[in-house]
Amino acid sequence: MTVETIIRTISLILAPVVMIASCVQFLNGVLQRYSSISDRMRAMHLERLEILRMTADSVTGALENLGALNSLRVQEIEEQLPHLLWRHKMLHRAALFVDSAVLIFVACMFVIALAAIMNSGLVATIALLCFLLGTTALLVGVILKTVEFYQSYREVVFEVMHGLGLGKKDVTIHLE
Description:
Layout: H1 3-58, H2 68-118, H3 121-165
């Protein structure tokens, strides 16, 4: 191999590094949201248990024996937790796809090096397909994150409008 060939090969190998850096940046944001939702679910679950424990200590533990506000809060938590769990699952899948993209891009670097060493068109084609597969995995992760982000907005609107409607009659919640 000539010096020029080696330099060109190193340049080709470094191309997936840009994609890896992008994946890591994106993954950092996904993992922060994932952690935030985990913490929120745990806090809401604990709040629900505390409300139910207060009632169980005072009477029978039945939902009807809760105060009106506590009863509404328990119902709100019970409605929100499955939605948060769904969003958590979406972020989990997004993180797995982005992690897979990183692994594929690292493998792509080795395949590019192998193609250069072997001077093989077939291996070069495999390297291109590997790169495209990594890009596809990243795209799926971005789509999952976007869907979760949209659902997050809808849930915040619901919670705020529901809270504003407490004690009022005929409050309509509009999700746009």
